[in-house]
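Protocol step 4 of 6.
Sequence for YecA family protein (Chromobacterium violaceum) entered exactly as in the expression construct, tag removed. Do not edit the line below.
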Amino acid sequence: MFCAALPHNGRLTHWKSAMSHKPLSEQEYQRLSATLARFADHGCMNLERLDGFFAALLAGPEAIRPAECLPLILGDAFDDESAFPSEKALEQFVSLLRGHWQDIAEALKHGEFQPWLEADADGNPRGNDWAEGFAAGMELLNDDWGLLFDSPDDAPLLEPIMILGFERHPDPEMRPVVDALSEEARAELLAALSPSVHGIHDFFAAIRLKLEQDEQALEQEQPRRPH
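Step 5 output, structure tokens:
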């Protein structure tokens, strides 16, 4: 899956890091959701799918800045010159994306992450969009995610995400469950998403820490050159 640091029609060239984080307000989330919904016909992610996508990028093997993935987030709207009426409108949208990204990062840091799940027409969350977004994020570093799949102790963390993420797959053979999920089974899977994401975050954080420690030890073992 393609993901690269590309300018949006020459107007977006970088992702400015915030010195301090202020959580998005309810009104700001409404604006973000409405903007994403406006591009639904262009294959743009909705807010639930975006939340899962960002969760995978932040909890996974290596941080990928969301500005590098605007083509995946916006779909065909990324190449549409008329998608945003002005540079200011684009900057406001990017600011909302950055705010949501930072909200997730802070929640993971403090062990408080909860997935953003929208209710269906019957008022019940299904979680498919969220899990499909998470799976899309995994594809960006597919080989590195193999470390988790190959871990007997930690691979089960992916189970609720994979079940919901592939429940609607067009190929029936790719669906992890044959029969429709019961309300009880779906509720259990949805409840497992938060601890799964935290477990995945801890798994890869431990690997990164071990690599850093090994690199430091190797540097200390290397003989110093005489002056």
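Step 6, annotate. Helices lie at 26-38, 47-59, 70-74, 87-109, 128-139, 142-149, 159-165, 183-221.
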